[in-house]
Amino acid sequence: MQHRQHESTDQPGAHRVTLSQPVSKVGRVPDAPFPVRRDSLRQLVRQAGAGALLVTNLLNIRYLTGFTGSNAALLLDADSDERTLFCTDGRYVTQAKTEVPDLELVDDRASAAALATRASGRTGFESHYVSVEQYEALSGLAENAELMRTPGLVERLRLVKDEHEIAALRKACAVADAALAALIERGGIRPGRTERDVARDLENLMLDHGASARSFSSIVAAGANSAIPHHRPTGAVLAPGDFLKLDFGATVDGYHSDMTRTLVLGKAAGWQRELYELVRRAQERGSAAVRPGAVTKEVDRAAREVIEQAGHGEQFTHGLGHGVGLEIHEAPSLAKKGDGTLTAGMTVTVEPGVYLAGRGGVRIEDTLVVRDTAPELLTLSGKDLVVV
């Protein structure tokens, strides 16, 4: 199969294409990011007026400890790791000694309850995750503590990625880049195949290149289906002249990538080239606006006004982008009504799109890191129109 691609002037190398048992304790792993993150969280806990924080969200626990199991809780002392407790159950004790070697370990299946009984004084909890019933149960067990609502403390830290996180995100994006390149090179995108065929191959290639999982259900949308922003792959058959929209990502070391590319099968029509170039210009403008101090709605505006000036404002139906990290959708939100401010180290997507119902649509999406000078591009697949 032949495919053509213009050499990109801004993206060289296009298609370059992670009952309670006694407490135990073991030594600390040096240079791990987790103690630093816990120390940063302690400042927020103290500012909230608490002496400890009960963390029950598993992603937040992973962020703070490195633990990857399915049952855990963390009782973070506001002053020291020496009084911080990590709890999981017998299924994960061996794993915990490897992944969390620097904290005292409690073995109990009812992890949050076990740590609530050990809490004392004013103790914060993740009220944005804990139900009323769970709160009442924990309060009854925390006889020596006053549980206080402290929502979003860990998430405030997760907004800005450290270099350990950015390295994982970089790997996840590289896996997605490599999978797309391999898919094209193997002839996996051609008339006669179905959207499901392409999605299956793309996801398997991400696994082959080192992903632990896909980041989300891949979007593969051909022809008129490409005008549906979140179309799910079907048995629709790819045909010459179709737009093919691919929105996909890989998970590496718990961190997600997110990328969209839109291709054309066979010869591209004039309207397709025009629509593609419009979205590309908007994507470039939005990416250039990603900088420290930028208000999120103004980043959205930078890209959106390009599309509005071309008369397609009503066909750009979603926000410009979102944060990405341990979750595929995190803060901040780059949207028309966003009021946050970007900070160096935040990782965001920039993904404008124009969708012409019944004809086809284009979305181009990258994952970028906010840097002091220019944003760091993590998704390196080229963005010139590819015709396969």
From TrEMBL:
Sections of the chain in a coiled coil: none
CDD domains, per database record: APP-like (cd01092)
Protein's UniProt keywords contain NAD: no
Keyword Metal-binding part of the UniProt annotation: yes
Stretches for region Disordered: 1-34
Domain of life: Bacteria
One Pfam entry name: Creatinase_N
Sample GO molecular function, one term: metalloexopeptidase activity
Keywords: Hydrolase, Metal-binding
Ranges where the Peptidase M24 domain occurs: 168-371
Annotated Creatinase N-terminal domain residues: 37-160
PANTHER family (alphabetical): AMINOPEPTIDASE (PTHR46112), CYTOPLASMIC PEPTIDASE PEPQ-RELATED (PTHR46112:SF8)
Protein name, as recorded: M24 family metallopeptidase
